[in-house]
């Protein structure tokens, strides 16, 4: 017997998303304002929900499908990240991103599947999102970072993935700063303007998908064959529902302290003047990940802005405070100044946060949750490539398909529960603090 679901936390503004703000204004949102019937409702307009809705529509062109999003598509987490579609192992809870050979190979297979799916949609529909297949740099600032990169390189060699070492001068030539002591280049990563991608994916969905934004599901009532989703302005009645709400799933039913809403934060500079860009030097566009997963991710954008991401905070309330944002901005400023002393006058125009959905054992939820209700939840910090894959594959699974990747996701561990709160809160916060402290110079 299926059960009813009540949603208790909804997306909050959490700062100002610079990716969204630098796009042209969005068309007005179409919200749920009456009672309508669909074969499928996909809840959550992040990358996972967008890929789920697309794949359902491709495989079931006669089905009526709704995609519902509480905010604007592109303004929430999937449109407020650093834009890395990472193909290689990227376990942010590990010291060097790698796991075992078998787990790493499985991750790469899955992530490339997701990247290929989204890349083909971008190409097919000409989505203007600065999609770049230009790889990423993993850079270190000291011997400790170099050792972590060497472990990562060993892990890549064990799974036959290619990489290239850059010395201090070579990475300075790319970035314009002499802050880094060396780097490892991996060619398979793609990068995007994430808000533009999400908006473009929504706008190019097949015709049998109807998109509702500014429409938060308040609850799902199980009426046997039908599921009734309630909203402030109306109802949707569906035969089947797929939940793609990532961190927000932590607050409705059945995952006691297993899904951990951990926020991370980013800032974006104003556009540099031509003189400032000349002072910086380096190449026009590059994307860099720190040797220590708790360090600073930096991108120089083709628009002559720089984006800095660092700092984590466990926020089970799914909301950050002004103090959280102020702290993040001051950490970003410090990280920016250490790397780019020649750009002291370049202000950080936007600062924002967004919730990741982590678990202590890298577990995630994929499959049938209840009669007629499916879920693909738990990005573990790598939602762009993993969310693309799990969104596509949950649609295939829900339509009765079977393949090796679906089985891989069905067999992944479930998020391991932590002790009851507030013990869990203290443990997670302390673990983040210790890891950030240990990242030290990489911040
Ligand atoms: C600053 C930052 C940098 C990051 N950098 C990267 C990166 O470079 N690469 C990468 O892979 N990942 C990155 N991430 C993580 C990445 O953004 C997430 O993994 C990804 O967004 C997960 O996608 P998703 O679709 O599963 O979930 P989400 O993007 O969280 O989407 C879930 C959606 O569900 C909606 N929703 C929730 N509740 C309801 C409701 N009741 N009704 C209707 N809708 C609802 C939410 O509004 C949201 O839009 C970063 C995250 C942040 C915050």
Structural class, from helix and strand content?
Answer: alpha+beta
Low-confidence stretches: none
β-sheet strand percentage: 15-25%
Shape: globular
Ions and ligands: flavin-adenine dinucleotide
The N- and C-terminal alpha carbons lie at a distance of 49 Å
Q: How many domains make up the coordinates?
A: 1
Round the Cα radius of gyration to an integer and report it: 21 Å
The CATH topology is given as FAD/NAD(P)-binding domain
User: How many strands, which pairing sense, and closed or not: the largest β-sheet?
Assistant: 9 strands, mixed
CATH class: Alpha Beta
**How much helix, percentage-wise, in residues?**
25-40%
CATH fourth-tier homologous superfamily: FAD/NAD(P)-binding domain
The CATH architecture: 3-Layer(bba) Sandwich
The number of distinct β-strands equals: 19
Determine the mean pLDDT. Answer: 94
Tally the helices. Answer: 11
The ordered H/E elements are EHEHEEHEHEHEEHEEEEEHEEEHEEEHHH
Short description:
This protein is an alpha+beta fold. It is built from eleven helices and 19 strands. The chain has helices spanning 18-21, 47-59, 101-125, 143-158, 168-175, 194-203, 274-280, 322-339, 383-398, 404-410, 423-439; strands at 5-6, 35-43, 65-68, 84-85, 136-140, 164-167, 182-186, 190-191, 209-212, 219-223, 226-230, 235-243, 260-269, 286-290, 297-300, 306-314, 348-358, 365-370, 373-377.
